[in-house]
Each structure stands twice: as structure tokens, then as C-alpha cells.
Design goal:
- The protein is an alpha+beta fold.
- It contains 3 helices and 9 strands, in the order E-H-E-E-E-E-E-E-E-H-H-E.
- The strands form 3 sheets. A 5-stranded antiparallel sheet has the order 2-3-4-7-8. It has a two-stranded antiparallel sheet with strand order 1-9.
- Strand 5 and strand 6 form a beta hairpin.
- The longest helix is centred in the N-terminal third of the chain and has 16 residues.
- It is globular.
- The two termini are 31 Å apart.
Length: 194
Amino acid sequence: MLAHMAIRPIVIVGDPVLATPAVQVTVFGDELAAFVEDLFETNTVAHGAGLAANQVGDPRSVFVYDLVDDDRVRHRGCVVNPVLETSELPETMPDPDDDIEGCLSVPGERFPTGRADWARVSGVDVHGEPVVVEGRDYLARCLQHETDHLRGHLYLDRLVGRNQRAARKMIKRRQWTVAGNQWFPGVDPDPFGW
């Protein structure tokens, strides 16, 4: 039986922890399993599709995902030390209706973001056992998004053209240019209005 789960504060863009590549997990056991349960709980309360460790200030290479795809199928899991493969990335401007992406570390904001329509992540679970997650569309977007986090990149780094300019202005306007900004799911108002 795992100890009591904890909801953790989510770090906001501008903090260097989000731009720092994650470190490989080498220690497996109860502490890692409890941490992953905290990620799931935090993601649930924040109404997220996924959450990477560095979004709660932890440097380890691990993320969780919990989403319902376009076919109403629920996908839920955890990948430790993920390695990403994708189909070809689109070279056109993202569709402002179909390619909208958000992030719990960029609370309340959404921007069109180009992503491959298929992705596969290989890694291990909390016990060090091999795991492979593969999907299309929304699940593929989530797998790419969370793996990017662990590489030290936000989806904002993938924006192009007017979307990139709008994101830069938003960050400046919201004063998300320094370390230490965070929000607490379940305590602070929901930034996405769920």
C-alpha cells in the first residue's frame, strides 16, 4: 500500500527547471512509485492530459499521462526514461482549430502547435520493467509534449510565426520571466476554467 498521495505545485514557464534536461532514473522502488502517484494525483486535480516530473520541480526523467482520445478511449500510464519516435513533423502552419495545445506550466494559455500525428515512447515503468506506448492524434501529441518537457523544452519552443510572437508577448505581459512562479491545483483558481 502506498503512502498518502500529495498534490504538488506546478512550476510556471520562466523557471530554469523547465529548461533543464531531465536526469535518467536509476533508482526504482517505493519512493519512485509514491512520486508517480503524486504526479497522477496532481495531474488529475489540474485537469491535465499529462505531467512531467520537472513540472513539479523534480529533475528525474519520468512522466504520467491520463487522457481520453477522440474515440473516447482512456489512456493512462507512466513512462520512466522515455525515448521518443514519431512520424514526420508537419512543415505547414498549425491549424488554429485542430492543433491547439496547452500546458499546465503555461496556465490558461493555448497556442496552435505542429506535432507529428503518430508517436511511440519506449522506456520502463516504476519497477524498471520495459514499457512501450504508441498512439495517434491526441495521445501522440501528449507523448511528444511530455517527452519534450524531459528534454528541457516547452511547447512554446515549437511555436512559429505569429504564434511565437504572441507567446513571447504573453510571457512578458504575465511576467513569467523569472524563477519561482507556480500555481497549486485544487487551491488556486483553475487557469483553464475546467
